[in-house]
Structure formats: structure tokens, C-alpha cells
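A sample copied in:

***
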Amino acid sequence: MGLCVGLTGGIGSGKTSVSRLFAELGAGVVDTDEISHELTAPDGAAMAAIRLAFGDQFVTADGALNRAAMRALIFADSTAKAQLEAILHPMIQARALMAIAQSSAPYTVLVVPLLLETGNYQGRAKRVLVVDCDERLQIARTMQRAALTEEQVRAIMASQLPRKVRLAGADDIIVNNGGLDDLCQQVQTLHQAYLALAKS
């Protein structure tokens, strides 16, 4: 098993952009959000358990997770959130670890939005990379991408680790306040460092 770097960051910080740049440089990328979407797509592997636990109103006509209904429920009900996580997290983790094990890349970037909150991958990720940006940028990017109100974005941010705590848990930090060139440069620098670490 080669070097595994855990990549995390608050909503709207730019985790997807950063992981895409690492992939372009030849790193393996395993994204737990993508795995979660596969599991909750029409007739995805988690959908039978979700239907059983929550009922038909949380499943769309084509057999996928009704994301809007589920988002509203888990924000209002912490028990429902824990119930959903109990279904999804073990399945996501099993698939992610399998993908890491099968990777032939020099090192693997494991993208986990709640890496530091859950501690599920602490034994696997040898370094923690946090993507950080100003809160106003976080809010603007998320509102633009996900068609959420500022209030909804702030509620999601409040449910995640405070920025200071997340940064304190980082081995490496990418600051995503600038443009793409700046981001590319930071990723390139870390890529060289990770290649050296992977060899050692």
C-alpha cells in the first residue's frame, strides 16, 4: 500500500478543483462524495436500506435518493442523520479502501469532506491536506454551485468543524483564495513533495 493523503476542507473550499489538479499530475484520486453518489443513484447499493429505514418519500421515482427531502430531514433531526450515516459510511469506507488498495498511482489522494470529524480514515491517511479559503468565498461558491441560500450554507458550515480546528489538524494546507494559476502552483509543489515521500 502506497502513500495515502487525506484531503479535506469546508464546503465550497475547492476540494474538487484541487483533487482534479492532483489527478492531472498523475496521482490516484478516491473521492468519497463520488462513491456516496454512486451508492444513492437509481438502484444504488445503499438504496434498499435507505428505503427500508426512511420510507418511499425519500426515494425518487427512478429509485435514487431524494436529496432535497433527506437534506431537510437530517438538518432537523440528528437521529435521522446518524441513521443515514450508519447506512452509508461503512459502505463508502469499504469501497474507498478497496480503490486505494487497487491504485497503481505513485500516491493516492483520498477526498473525505468529514475526514477530521469522523476519524474513519485516520489509520489510512498518512498526511492530512486541508483546502482552505475565506468564509465569504466559501459561501459565494456554494450558493452558486448548489443553488442554496446563504442561511442554508451557513447552517452546513456550522455543522462542520470550525475552520481553526480543521487547520490545526492539517499537515499541509492549500489556500484557495486566488485564481487557478495560484492553485496549480500550490498543487504542483505538494505533488513533488508527495512523490518524494512515496519513494521514501
Summary: Residues 37-104 form one domain. The two ends are 13 Å apart (CA to CA).
